[in-house]
Amino acid sequence: MSHSPNSAVLPRSPSTPYNRGMDDLTLPPELEQFAKEAVATGRFPDVSAVVAAGVSLLQRQEQERTAFNASLEAAEAAGEREGFVTIDEVHREINDLIDELDRAHT
After folding, report:
1. What pLDDT sits at residue 25?
2. Residues of the domain holding 71
3. Does any domain span residue 17?
4. Chain segment 21-67, per-residue pLDDT in tens
5. Top-confidence residue, 31 or 13
6. Are 51 and 35 in contact (CB under 8 A)?
7. DSSP H helical ranges for the chain
8. Cα separation, 97 vs 67, whole angstroms
9. How many domains in the chain?
10. Per-residue CA distances from 48 to 25, 28, 62, 85 (Å)
11. DSSP H/E element including 20
């Protein structure tokens, strides 16, 4: 596989090229210090790997947020189709289930 002169491959991701222009990234001092400490303790091979881990975490968080929002929309659509349940109805149904279980175990 060939890459352009301005791209490289991230560690532990042998087929994912990235643009070396990202190497000019500037971090706030506290994040730069954190990244350097993560490298110094051996948790990461270099600061680029720290940044890649952070961006990967952000990506996963965004995917989870998108999935959560989709589930909320699906639940709202189901409520629109099937009708909504009040908290009193939920409480009554839970109490009925508990009473039923109590009767079954006595």
Report:
1. 82
2. 7-104
3. yes
4. 566 789 999 999 999 999 999 999 999 999 999 999 999 999 999 99
5. 31
6. yes
7. 29-40, 47-82, 87-104
8. 31
9. 1
10. 9, 15, 21, 50
11. none
- The answer to whether position 21 is within a domain reads yes
HSE-CB of 90 using CA atoms within 13 angstroms:
4
Six-digit token pair at 83? 């009708």
Residue 44 falls within a domain, yes or no?
yes
**Predicted confidence (pLDDT) per residue in 58-93, tens digit:** 999 999 999 999 999 999 999 899 988 899 999 999
Give the residue-averaged pLDDT of 1-20: 49
Q: Are strands 17-19 and 7-9 parallel, antiparallel or unpaired?
A: antiparallel
> Would residue 42 count as lying in a domain?
yes
The burial of 41, by beta-carbon neighbours within 10 Å (0-12 exposed, 13-18 middle, 19 or more buried), is given as exposed
